[in-house]
Amino acid sequence: MALQEPFLSMLREQLSVEQQLVETLPKLQSEAGDAELNENLQHHLEETREHVNRLEDAFRSLGQEPKPTKSAVLEDLEKKHEKLMSETPRNLRDAVIASSAAATEHNEIAAYDALICAARAMGQKDVVKLLEQNLSQEQEALKKAQKGIEKITKEHAKELAA
Fold it and tell me: Which of 38, 43, 96, 161 has the fewest CB atoms in 10 Å of its CB?
């Protein structure tokens, strides 16, 4: 199985991403001032916990131990978020939070797309189903983040026009 090692490596990294997000999302919630944004972050935290469980199930389905590998991409996104938050006026920080969430979702969607392609190529139908469930929820989370960015920036534009 030539695909299995690279696939497992990507799967380990995605497990790490989801586990890190379980820790990061409550911090974003504490920074958020917008009630709808906060609610969306809470909902996605619950989904992210499900993602961790599904990824662990995927490992077990493959006869592997779920061992995460740290994600440099997520660490970079978190550093960018911190920098933007420190440079952004308080009334625009919710837009930064929503933008950071959207950037993370884009990364996760790309990762799940690649994982699904590899799992299909290996004939791992059960793993594909688990990954597709996570992908679907990530796509919905991205839509919510994008709507949040639009809403918050429109509100700020109205404040500036007043």
Answer: 161
The residue-averaged pLDDT of 49-62 equals 98
18: left (phi over 0), alpha (psi -120 to 50) or beta: alpha
Q: List, in order, residues 6 or more apart from 43 with CB less than 8 Å away.
A: none
Helix 93-121 vs helix 35-61: angle between axes, to the nearest 10 degrees? 20
Number of domains the chain contains:
1
Write down the pLDDT at residue 40: 94
Q: CA dist 104 to 6, 81, 147, 150, 152, Å?
A: 22, 10, 15, 17, 18
Q: What is the CATH number of the domain that holds 33?
A: 1.20.1260.10
Question: In the predicted model, is pLDDT for residue 3 greater than 70?
Answer: no
Q: CB of 86 within 8 A of CB of 130?
A: no
Q: DSSP characters for 84-118?
A: HHHHS-GGGHHHHHHHHHHHHHHHHHHHHHHHHHH
Domain ranges, residue 123: 4-161
Q: What is the largest CA-CA distance in the chain?
A: 63
